[in-house]
Amino acid sequence: MKRALVTGITGQDGSYLTELLLAKGYEVHGLIRRASTFNTGRIDHLFQDPHHSDARLHLHYGDLSNSEQLTNVIYNIRPDEVYHLGAQSHVKVSFDMPEYTGDITGLGTTRLLEAIRRSGITTRFYQASSSELYGDSPAPQHELTAFRPRSPYGAAKLYAYWMATNYRQGYGVWACNGILFNHESPRRGPTFVTRKITMGVANILAGKQQKLFLGNLDARRDWGYAPDYVEAMWRMLQQDRPDDYVIGTGEVHTVREFVEAAFSHVGLDWEQWVAIDPRYYRPTEVDDLRANPSKAKRQLGWEPKVTFRDLVKLMVDHDVETVRGGTAVLSAVSGKPIASLAA
Ligand code: NAP
Ligand code: G4F
Question: Which residue is closest in CA terms to ligand 2's atom 15?
Fold first, then answer.
């Protein structure tokens, strides 16, 4: 039985990846942060009572800021594969918290790589790199396109990208960079634009929200479906040798087009409901991201299965259903839908 360690297991990708790995027969170990409220909502359906001897999902407290814990976890678990997904992953928040983002999203990777190196174990390492690395490099972007990050998040991910590369070249660590373009799902965090929009549509339809405030509608993104993308992560670590891969659909849409598609799916005219709030603008924006995923198709046999239209529909349908069931995510402080809060 293969053993995997997943950092960021409580996030969108971590939850889908864990489902995939358990289905493939892996024993999965996840790093979770201690929080004063439960933060395991995305993996609760996968929980297995650790008292049962056949349990294959195990959770360990740890934080990417703490190398001691990371070293212990690596040394004790001795995983065959490490999927490093944990990060402060919000680009807008990285402008508010640049130092913290550098620490967790950048140095966190170094701490984990160093724990692997010092433990002397043989493992395969996946680094969650990002299309944010490309910044204002012209689209379409591929593995050899210049990196020109435009945010503290992008700069931190660039450092992490090169640390994974450096440990591969310098110490022979079997490390891959997956350069993933935006991928979404009903499990996407509510302050990322797609989920903010689909939750807004659902709340507006139910009469629970009067306006949806957004920032730059002109930004262009290559949006895919998260479960397709975690399959690509796994495939990368099954290759004969470590390499870097761009993962995306190759199709681009503006934020405005996502908004139009989401509102029109439930028969609403978006222009009546959406207002611009400059607080959601970023000091520097990444205008145009579109993947050229031909290497992944050629070498990994990977292709996205869910189209842009289907992605919008499945996210809107999920949120409409959730609100109908009376479980809209409301802020405990303001009582307002979380989608209308900052970021
Ligand atoms: P996400 O939903 O924001 O999940 C981030 C995960 O990191 C959560 O499990 C979070 O734990 C954990 N985390 C944050 N700070 C931590 C810390 N100090 N110590 C330990 N764990 C910490 O992100 P995602 O969308 O699944 O993305 C997964 C990875 O891929 C991230 O590295 C992201 O930057 C990268 N990426 C994402 C995309 C995308 O479009 N989704 C594209 C390219 C790259 P809590 O649940 O406790 O907050
Ligand atoms: O959904 P977003 O916040 O995602 P962004 O910045 O592209 O970052 C995501 O994808 C990256 C891959 O390229 C990941 F590495 C990263 O971890 C994260 O998952 O914003 C998308 C676009 C931006 O151009 C933003 O300016 O939507 C624009 N936008 C317009 N109004 C908004 C809003 N973004 C947010 N979050 N909130 C708004 O109200």
Answer: 130
Here the tokens at position 283 are 């000091």
Domain shared by 198 and 167, yes or no = no
122 is in which domain, residue-wise?
Answer: 3-184+223-247
Closest listed residue to residue 84, CA positions, set 121, 122, 127: 127
> Cα of 8 to ligand 1 centre, how many Å?
5
Ligand showing the shortest atom-to-Cα distance for residue 256: 2
Ligand 1 center to 241 CA (angstroms): 26
173-231 pLDDT per residue, tens: 999 999 999 999 999 999 999 999 999 999 999 999 999 999 999 999 999 999 999 99
* CATH code for position 318: 3.90.25.10
Looking at the DSSP bridge assignments, the partners of residue 57 are: 28
Tokens of 296: 């992944």
For ligand 2, atom 25: residue with the closest CA = 216
Classify the phi-psi angles of 207: left when phi > 0, otherwise alpha if psi is within -120 to 50, otherwise beta.
Answer: left
pLDDT in tens, 37-69: 989 999 999 988 888 888 999 999 999 999 999
Verify whether residue 67 is a known catalytic residue: no
Q: Which helix (H) or strand (E) holds 258?
A: helix 255-265
Cβ(57)–Cβ(23) under 8 Å? no
Query: Is position 64 within any domain?
Result: yes
132 is catalytic: yes
Query: In the annotation, is 36 catalytic?
Result: no
Query: Would residue 294 count as lying in a domain?
Result: no
Structure tokens at 274: 């959406």
